[in-house]
Fold this sequence. Notes:
The chain is an alpha+beta fold and 226 residues long. The chain has two domains: 2-63, no CATH class; 70-225, Lipocalin, CATH 2.40.128. It is 38% helix and 31% strand. It has helices at residues 2-14, 18-21, 30-38, 48-63, 89-94, 98-114, 183-193, 199-209; strands at residues 75-86, 121-124, 129-134, 137-145, 151-157, 161-173, 176-182, 215-225. The protein has an eight-stranded antiparallel β-barrel with strand order 1-2-3-4-5-6-7-8. The longest helix is centred in the middle third of the chain and has 17 residues, at 98-114.
Amino acid sequence: MRKFILCALAAAIFAMPAAEAKDNKSGLSLGSIAGALTGSDSSSDNGGSDILGAVGSFINNVTQNKNFTIDDLVGRWEYTAPAVTFESDNALKKIGGAGAATAVEGKLEPYYRRLGMTKTVLTVDKDHSFSLKMGLMLLKGTIEKEEDGTIMFKFSAFGKVSLGSVQANITKSGDTINLTFEATKMVKIITTVASKVNSASVKTLAELLGSYDGIYIGFKLKLAEK
Length: 226
């Protein structure tokens, strides 16, 4: 099914001459394709980057999967961008689909910069222990995958302060993973372990995330060292 969808998408885009891509008479455009696929309204021309971003988000969502073991996560993973997922497809549809989720990721980026989270590094060892460094914050613990596929991060801060077990959403595509945690728990983690934190930024971030139901936030990470 994934291969079929991707082939259909590629055929629709590349079979369309550039001149026809914005031909109102045809009633078909890259924007309308992106809107149909992502669930967002991209019929208006907001620039090629917006359209390609929506299409790219759709492709990324289709090709990612959860069929991996903790052993597949062993290595050093470095931050590339914010990541947003939702508790359910219904929650995703409420905000307008994958294109809108990409917009939320864009809103997170300034807060990540202020909090030093753009330097996030996740290191997973062979014994399934992990360290998650987010700016000045260092989290350690272990990762477990339960029988139903649920992935749990059992946190401790600096090896001393227990943060308990937190469910994570992880999808993997090649050498890239999306790692997200339920938003309110992520904010709690940040405020609990940060010795020097921009409290105003955290408060505003919490307010932003509070406007979305079932949202998970985290990071897109790329494998830097196996």
